[in-house]
Amino acid sequence: MNNLTFRCMKNAFLIIIVCLSTVLFSCKKDKDQIIAATEKSDTVNSKLIADNGWPREAENNGTKLVYYQPQIDDWKDYKELTGRLAFSLTPKDGKQVLGVASLKAETLVDKDNRSAFIKNLQVTDVRFPALDEKKIPEMEKLFKETLPQSGDPISVDRILADLSQTKSPPKGITAKNDPPAIFYSTNPSILLIVQGEPVLVPIDKSDIQYVVNTNWDLFFDKTAKDYYLLVDNIWLTSKNIEGKWTKTTKLPSGLNNLPSEQNFDDVKKMIPPPSSGNAPEVFYSNKPAELIAVNGNPEFITIKGTKLMYIDNTENDVFANEADGQYYVLLSGRWFKSKELTGPWSYAGNNLPADFAKIPKDSPRANVLSSVPGTQEANDAVMLSQVPTTAILKKSDAEAKVKVTYDGGTAQFKPIEGTKMQYASNTQEKIIKVGDLYYLCFQAVWFMSTSPNGPWKTADSVPKEIYTIPPSSPVYNVTYVTQTTTDTTVESSSTTGYLGAFIIGATVGAILTYGTGWYYPPYVYYGGLYPIYRPWPYAYGGGAVYNPWTGGYAAGRRVYGPYGAAGTSAWYNPATGRYGRSASVQGWYGGRTAASTYNPWTGNYARTNQGHNAYAQWGHSAATNGNQWAQTGHITTRRGTAVAYQTSGGKEGVITHRRGGGTTVRTNNNLYAGHDGHVYKRDANGNWSHYNNGNGGWTQAGTLGSTKKSGEAIQNRPNQGLGANGAGEKIQRDNLPKNQNLGGETRLGDRTQGNNFNRPEQTLGQPNKPLGEAGRPDITNDLDRSAFSRDRGESQTRNFQNFQHQGGFNGGGFRGGGGFRGRR
């Protein structure tokens, strides 16, 4: 692989090697083999490092620990977790006891797999509600020695489900929400975007030039002064790029000289032109715009329980509201409204009708809920966007890969409005001048130098001024990258703002959108043999669709062009003086469709199984990069298959799978840690019981909606498992079924355990950490939220893993799939 890497980077250093993937100039056979191997490897790895369920089991020198899903209280900066968990602990040759632990830990997040890995876990408190206080120090020591300290994965969805109950979203950025040019058509049509004036690049040995700054295959015949446009399998021609386009079956001979190995193969297949097919209508814009394309007259479908209707025969999300007589359309995560489908349109995000939040979750248009302020889906999108992806890299490795090229040879800088800083304008790299120093953000890692030409060293700190860059600047996305360093490593974190997804709106009702809404004119340099065109990021013109499973926007619909948006169809390699073309959409994670992709926010082309990755240059999954935190492998025992985690500097943990499927450890995930230090469980009716009644049984926590009184004794039913008790039930030890257990071999409540539990007259907990009164309304209300969050987190985790394992990163799994080019 190293030989391939060096060979490809010598030919075209801008092409990024991603996750063992190949590049545009690799031979097709090698490329296909590598891509296939990468996809297979990613599938295996995603299964190994996934959150495979709760509770989990760990063993240490005969001591067995079953620990239940943590209840997360806070995720500071989305890097430091604090929470609590309930557990059962069975010493070697001892009796099982229950407890509650308070925890603090750092996290490393791999957003490709939506997994957070625990790092540097600290146990800040341990409570044993029904244990003799003399035994507490010994049991606390065993618990701390057995609990895995690092590497244990937990689904990001489980964490966010907890936080969604308590954490408010931040205030949005100062975005520009003026509507773009919005075209409307009921005929077959496309949107032709040429950013600024056409940038024409010669084709060798012919009088043909191709337009590099557009989203479709567009050529110019210098001899006849005619433009030629390829739309799927139809060739169109026009004397004026803004004029009327007509179908043609006659092409200039110069098109036969299109070069090979620059992704013109699909174009060459259409020479000579096919005779079948009708010419589409062409809408032209010289800056990012949008197109509402309806297949014939609009077909409206009523949404039950609302006064909304949606247009069914379009790839766009277009609604009609009978209550106010307005049409609404969702573009790049923003809502616009109009009295007529033909416009004019105005921004509607601050005054969206309440019925949008009532769209049923099983509706064909439920995907828009992620962009409806105040919905759970919108809150999830906003929160997920703040979760950083982290990479740990060796400084020497990172510094060796950095290379900066300036068009024309000398760095040129432009001021950043409202600051004293400047940015380099004639390079695709993001270089910020702060005082006399230069800071480079390269593939989500910060470097610094005393010269704009380097050498570049990883930055031990990033000036605070950089994080004041306004959204109106084309380098604004670098403010979403932070990092810390050690003597030999750099730990970098980036959020989705680096890739072009931003939060807008107030604290209540914030949503995630694509792009800042500001227009950044593209850069063109005419100083050499060929013009150099570099597109800046944009908000519109790509048909951006939010994918809730990847947490980002993928772009590309058929009417917007085969490359997703203007500027993504071409790139220039100053090292070779040649142009190439990327035959793919520009979205990330789920956004790939072909050999390579382009992200105008990062300025790089890359091929990766998940589309764009903030750390594509470094060639590893971010969470496992550098220190390889989670080294995983399978083991098989007589009880079934297990996934074992052995982590850097941490303990080993095991997640057991029952034969024939399942993800739990021989019991349900129904123990909870109360803020008062008690262990709780919940029955099917939503009633809570706490484990602290002095004899090792369970007592109802208050009445909690039941007519039974707390402490009322009943006979336990033989087939009733833990967590299924009725309200007010008090389990008598003599009546507990002998086969009932809690994740261990020792039966909970057996007479032989009696010496381990407090007597009624004993004080629960440690003298310096007294337990609170069990079952208070504030505690049970909090437990209700935890139970709801746990159920929702479980559902979201399984849905994502199903999406992932079914090949969802190929573009399926949600509306706008099939490469994100429209409804299938």
From TrEMBL:
PROSITE patterns: PROKAR_LIPOPROTEIN (PS51257). Residues 782-795 have a biased composition (Basic and acidic residues). Residues 752-766 have a biased composition (Polar residues). It comes from the Bacteria. It comes from Flavobacterium endoglycinae. Residues 706-824 are annotated as: Disordered. Residues 808-824 have a biased composition (Gly residues). This is Carbohydrate-binding family V/XII. Residues 798-807 have a biased composition (Low complexity).
